[in-house]
Amino acid sequence: MDIRVMKPSDIPHVQQANITNLPENYFCKYYLYHALTWPQLSYVAVDVSRPPKTPYDPPKIVGYVLAKMEEEPSDGIPHGHITSLSVMRTHRRLGLAEKLMRQSQRAMAETYGAKYVSLHVRVSNTAALHLYRDTLGFNMDKIEAKYYADGEDANCMRMELSHLRFEAEEERKGIKDQDEGDEVGSAGKKDDDKKGKKRRVKVGRVLGVGDLVERNESSAKAG
Amino acid sequence: MPQPLSAKDGAAFRQVVKLYELKQHKKALKTAEQILKKNPNHGDTLAMKALTLNAQGHTDEAFSLAKLALQQDMKSHICWHVYGLLYRSTKQLDEAIKAYKFALRLEPESAQIQRDLAFLQIQMRDYNGYIESRKAILHARPALRQNWTALAVACHLAGDLSAAEHYLKTYEDTLKQPPPRTDMEHSEASLYRNVLIGEMGEVERALAHLKTISRNNLDRTAVMEMRADYLLRLDRKDEAEEAYRALIVRNNEYRLYYEKLEKVLGLDRENPDDHAELAALYTSFLEGNHRLDAARRIPLDFLRGDEFKTAADKYLRRSLAKGVPSLFPNVKALYSDDFKRTTIQSLVEGYTSETQADGEDMPQHTNGDASSKFVQSRLYFLAQHYNYFRSRNLKKATDFISQALEMDPKSPDYHMTKARILKHLGDVEQAAEVMSFARELDTKDRYINTKCAKYQLRNNDCESALKTMSLFTRNESVGGALGDLHDMQCMWYITEDGEANLRMDKLSLALKRFKCIYDIFDVWQEDQFDFHYFSIRKGQIRAYVDMMRWEDQLRSHPFFTRAALPAIKIYVMLHDNPDLSHGHLANGSIKLEGLDAAERKRALKKAKREQERLEKAEAEKREAEKKQTKKTGTGGDGEPKKEDPDPHGFQLLQTPAPLDEAVKFLTPLLEFAPKNITAQNAGFEVFIRRNKPLLAVKCLRAAKSLDPEDPVVHEQLIRFRRSLDSTSASPIPDKVAQVLKSVSQDLLPDSTSLTAFNDAFMAKHASSAPHVRSGLRARGYLDASSKERNEEELLATLDLVDLSLEDTQAGLELLGEWKSSKAVQDEYLAKAKALWPEATSFKRR
Ligand SMILES: CC(C)(COP(=O)(O)OP(=O)(O)OC[C@H]1O[C@@H](n2cnc3c(N)ncnc32)[C@H](O)[C@@H]1OP(=O)(O)O)[C@@H](O)C(=O)NCCC(=O)NCCS
Hints:
The complex is a heterodimer. Chain A is built from 8 helices and 7 strands. Chain A is of the alpha+beta class. Among the domains of chain B are: 7-194, Serine Threonine Protein Phosphatase 5, Tetratricopeptide repeat; 674-750, no CATH class; 753-845. Mean pLDDT of chain B is 89; it is low at 359-366 and 634-639. Bound molecules: coenzyme A. Chain A: It comes from Trichodelitschia bisporula. Chain A: InterPro entries: Acyl_CoA_acyltransferase (IPR016181), Ard1-like (IPR045047), GNAT_dom (IPR000182). Chain A: GO terms for molecular function: protein N-terminal-serine acetyltransferase activity; protein-N-terminal-glutamate acetyltransferase activity.
């Protein structure tokens, strides 16, 4: 099983995996919106061992994580959010969900400077709770009553990503290649970083398909 | 001529525009009416009124009004713009582009018209037009980076990579100071530039350029992947090795990285001399990586002989001991190699003693729990193994799954496998029941719910399937559970439901479902529209280009093919037998065969009445529902949704030109999936009926080059030649006839006797049921007196070894097609039942 970043061409089967595994579903455009706004954050697990039957067989997707950055974080802190995560029953307990999550989390920190990642999970979903809390290290944030369409409560969970941001920063410092940005006033920038100045990434400021964003989030809530 | 409005009316007109934009359509209309009272011929106001009407859903009225507006004021860019918008909203993009161009000619400075035009052009893949528009937009606002990037994308998509890079660079050169590191737009644009350099094949320069941007780039993974790729292509081995190793550290479950690393190291899986080194390489990754699968599984792909056996043994025991449920799906790809298949089989069969559980790096299990887990995993594995087509032995499979179930009678997974075995035995009825039982063992899991619905559909029980699905759908949306499944584009369900209806001869519903898939693909194509604007603003260019390339090939997706082929089949049936278009005939409740003219007429009338009755009842039911439950009236996308006026597809089925409809499905198939032989087969059937022999023969040729021995091709070849020999019926132009003759000469030389050709084919493929059927069919055309003999030989196919269930069923269908006597059919059925005692389809006959 490969773990790799999600591409637009994966969407039909990611959508299929989602509607096969979870009650919270989305139409194609919502996946496109994720894939084209934060292309680094969503990952898929692919069964590569299957020989294709026709030249047109798309990769067989057996799991995915659909993730995003919070567009306008109410706390003003840039952070990521897991929109949806699932693995086909035939491929569960292989560590796929964990690996998908870890890749996505790192990209959140590395690419978008996310300070933490949040998600919602049904209070009754023990498998997912185990995964988030015990395997990955999420903390309970709060309970959101009747979050799901059928009236079930959600656990809001979050996980700090500072270790990943630190790693990314260390790695960056290790890159010796000269950079056009660093040649001019690199000292000032490094200072910024030391002071822990907020990394502002220009995301969410200009919403071309703003309608789409809002409408979808109200119509279908994340898993 | 443009008519000037009074100052007051002018203000009112601006008000109309504003109200329209605020979607206050009623107020907008009212204000427009007021203006028109005094200025009945005011083009712009008429146009705005048309636009508003269109937004309210009165499309026809809107169009005629917009035309009127243009007649009043040909020189108004507003009128043309509105005209363009109307066409845009009805998806006639070609027409929209024309209208926009007129508008733009009248108002060259309008940024909005220019932009709208540009998006239409790229949506239609009018690259040259798009480049022109992009240049104009850039010219108007050169300070905006996105305008440079957009022009670069336009050039890139049009294939002019160096121009694309040029525009990116030109903008970069204007930067006096590098943008801050967190500037996503800059980060992406520079990476995009690097992609262009790489795509131009200038690897050296791409690497050098990457170096200058890598440190501050925000997409680390991409930078590392691109760098590694360049280094490998430049054969800079040491650095490339380091680069791929670094990638593997980040993500050790991505085969591409391992394959490239092998390449860097000069290791070749095909070369047995390299196997030891390869194996050592993969072992080196395992240390401290308990959860890593790739490095354990990959060596099984290349190892052979005893080495394979040792490695497979370790891998299997470890996974069985852990109880990894996906072990079988994970190794079955190895089964195409006979040795590997039999080795795995004998290994797992041999794990009979409980101590086998001590796999590699597993804690020593002494307690009974762990060993019983191992025993169960083994049974589960073997059940799946013997259920798989390459190693199928359904008796053994049944046996193993029963043993597993004895140990854990409440396991949903074991029941799922049991259901699957039953399906392969042909017992779709019991399979659905067992799957339903499995579902009840874990009602919170949608996966099982999905499988259950699927099995119910396979059992042609559409009603239960929908009920099952409705346990997880948003049933309050318009159209209930089914409506939600449509909104959420649940392709598999819609397709399977169509297939089930087709099996039950319910042509109208089947067609309805396949058409729905067709429509969803239109939606998916339309979905890209907003991103022409959105992505450029967001600056995520590489992802946008990926999307464009995917959209270009959208309908090559098997989801499309799978719906298009049966849809074409239905349309061809409708063409051959127009009576079928009466829903109730098509729904299989009335048969016309064997009736005389008067009886036929009566039966048809009855079918029509029945259908009208049904439609009326349906309409009443909808009305009642509407009154009773106050539905939200919105779909899952929050858009207001109309009731479907033709939920059964009766109107769809009554199309006056079924072949025209078939072509709508066929054209994308032939364009995007030309290597699909079934698509070419279908193309032949459609074109031959449309009297397009050249197109038909094109399909035939394409199919023959894909597989010269394909049974359908064989039969079509013979039919084609026969139709040529008897063209007197439908005269074709001389030139065409000449071309046809020469082409057909290539396919099947004139000198060949068709009978001899067919006999040779049948002799060559005597052990393959599909080929035998094809030969028999062909013999039927060639020799009308051969029926009895053909029937005998068809019956004989039941003695072929390993005859599949599908082939057994297809034989029976062929007898139906030949209108064979009941005695013959009964004989066949009796034999079929003996071969497939569990099969539902024979039991129900
Ligand atoms: C939740 C889900 C995504 C987990 O996927 P997965 O690939 O099987 O998970 P992993 O193999 O990565 O599991 C990692 C760890 O999570 C925990 N975990 C996973 N499934 C578990 C289960 N059924 N029970 C208890 N713990 C479980 C375990 O600690 C596991 O580690 P282990 O296997 O070494 O014990 C999957 O079960 C699923 O798709 N469920 C349906 C959809 C869903 O609920 N999605 C989550 C919505 S918020």
